[in-house]
Amino acid sequence: MSVIQIILVNAIAGIVLSQGARVLVNIAKTKNYFWGPVDAATKAGFVEKHVELRPGMLINYAEGPAHGIPLLLVHGQGMTWQDYGPVLTKLTSSYHVVAVDCHGHGKSTWNPEDYTANKMVDDLAAFGQLVFNGEPFAASGHSSGGLLVARLAALYPDIVRGLVIEDAPFFSTEPDRAPKTYAYIDGFDFVDAFLAQDTEPDWVCFYMPRSYWRRMFGRKLWGSFTRSVISQRHASPQRLPLIRWVGVSINRIWESLSHPCDLRFSKTFADFSWFSDFDQTQTLRDIQCPTVFIKATTRFNKDGVLLAALSEQDCDRVDSLLPANETIRVRSSHDVHFEHPRQFAHTMLSFAERIQ
Q1: How far apart are CA 293 and CA 62, in angstroms?
Q2: What pLDDT is attached to residue 187?
Q3: Strands 47-54 and 291-295, bridge-based pairing
Q4: 291: which strand partners?
């Protein structure tokens, strides 16, 4: 065997070993990656509860030990309170944490008549006053949940003592901007078609073959993922689909769409009815409490589609409108609290000192 052949063999062997090691690491990291932190929070004292706010409106939530400042956590669209699993136990040293299932999500009531920001905020205000016994509370919301907590602070300034807004899609969700965003192209464009058909009852199975991500991964690889996810969903619709060897970040694409959620809620984002009487600029101007805005990484594709919640210019505009704000940029995908729970928890604990 020549020297060149020996070098090539060693190089190929190194690549194979490297890829094999990566697969093994992925398999280890994906083991119970979503439910493991939720189980840990339960062992640490978090209890799932529900309350009927008004006739026909039940709110499901999880509550931790009352160790500090009341804190309401509001998840993003398509998720449930369990999405905060990785950070729940990290926050209990400074906060009395309550994580809610929003309207149309999880075990809370699914009623399309309630799917506007203002109606949801009215209920969240009543809910917060109820569970925290009338004490002003801090709030943190992710994505659409960030829009909600901002609106909550603007409309109910006497009950919100501080906000951490996590990568909320301010301004990019307005009608002239939304069609050029990943969220609109990869999800909202399909909602009407899904609701209008009766062939495929499972949203994830309907979504996978149409996903924007097939362009990124290629038809062959994405097709393999699609077949596996659809097979798992059809076999066990209540379980989160999992392809362990690809790692957590890729699994999050289909896992984040697999939680109980009323697709009629997504339709209100697609047709902008969720934003009825919700002026985003004025909302930010009306917030008087201390705030932190967490901004994840901004990306655009070659066609100028925004592959993030909001642009850097949007973030600067948010910062300029909030009177007492600190902006923190994190190199992360959209779900910072899940991808970087230690950094998110550090931000939250530092904020607790600021609003004591």
Answers
A1: 24
A2: 87
A3: unpaired
A4: 163, 325
d(CA 137, CA 68): 10
CA distances from 201 to 141, 184, 233 (A): 30, 21, 11
Provide the angle, in degrees to the nearest 10, between the axes of the packed helices 263-270 and 189-196.
Answer: 130
Annotate 257-287 with three-state secondary structure: CCCCECHHHHHHHHCCHHHCCCCHHHHHHHC
Contact (CB, 8 A) for 208 and 225: yes
Under-70 pLDDT residues of the chain: 1-21
Whole-angstrom Cα distance, residue 177 to residue 219?
A: 28
CA atoms of 213 and 219, how far apart (whole Å): 9
Distance CA(195)–CA(262), nearest Å, equals 11
Looking at residue 132, what DSSP letter applies? T
Is pTM beyond 0.90? Reply is: yes
Q: How many residues does the chain have?
A: 356
Query: Are 81 and 101 contacting, i.e. CB atoms less than 8 angstroms apart?
Result: yes
pLDDT in tens, 211-243: 999 988 999 999 999 999 999 999 999 999 999
**β-strands 69-74, 95-100 pairing:** parallel
* Per-residue pLDDT, 4: 46
Instruction: Say how far apart CA 281 and CA 278 lie, in whole Å.
Output: 9
pLDDT per residue over 25-58, tens digit each? 788 889 999 999 999 999 999 999 999 999 999 9
